[in-house]
Amino acid sequence: MKVTIAAVGRLRKSPELSLISDYLDRFNKAGRSMGLGPAQIVEVEDKKNLGMAAEAELLARAIPDGAVLITLDERGEVISSPDFAKRIERWRDEARDICFVIGGADGIDPALRARADASISFGKMVWPHMLVRVMLAEQIYRAGQILAGTPYHRV
Ligand SMILES: C[S@@+](CC[C@H](N)C(=O)[O-])C[C@H]1O[C@@H](n2cnc3c(N)ncnc32)[C@H](O)[C@@H]1O
Fold this sequence. Notes:
- By secondary structure, the chain is an alpha/beta fold.
- It contains five helices and five strands.
- It has a single domain (3-148), classed as Alpha/beta knot, CATH 3.40.1280.
- The chain has helices at 15-31, 52-62, 81-93, 110-115, 129-148, and strands at 3-8, 39-44, 68-77, 98-102, 118-120.
- It is globular, with a radius of gyration of 15 Å.
- The chain starts with a strand and ends in a 7-residue tail after the last helix.
- The mean pLDDT is 96.
């Protein structure tokens, strides 16, 4: 089950990048025997600054064919980590790849949002997109740990 995070902007060497790499590496290692992963980030850059619609086109190209499309959006559904893990488990059991999309400073173009199979919110507050990458990578790792039955997710 391939997990893609399609995101706007290029993350240079930074604390965020090292956290994301660490969580995704750990998820990939632990997930291998459970049919979870590999997970990877695909970054897209709207070099000419053409705006949300141009970003959406680049993001759409990064979505693997047939993948479940999940947008990260403050207007989306707020779900618990165990529910998130259950959804990932279900998509794995259905042999689906999944693709999370994180927008840029202006958000995700409405046309791309309308195509999503699911939309997940990390609360009503707006977070910087680079932090959303970190939070999502941690939740993907956490989901893997929940499905593996380890004590990482304690409650
Ligand atoms: C700076 S935000 C853009 C906010 C913009 N006002 C909008 O309408 O989406 C950049 C991206 O981070 C993600 N994001 C920010 N806050 C979020 C939240 N609370 N839950 C989920 N994703 C969030 C979304 O993917 C968003 O497109």
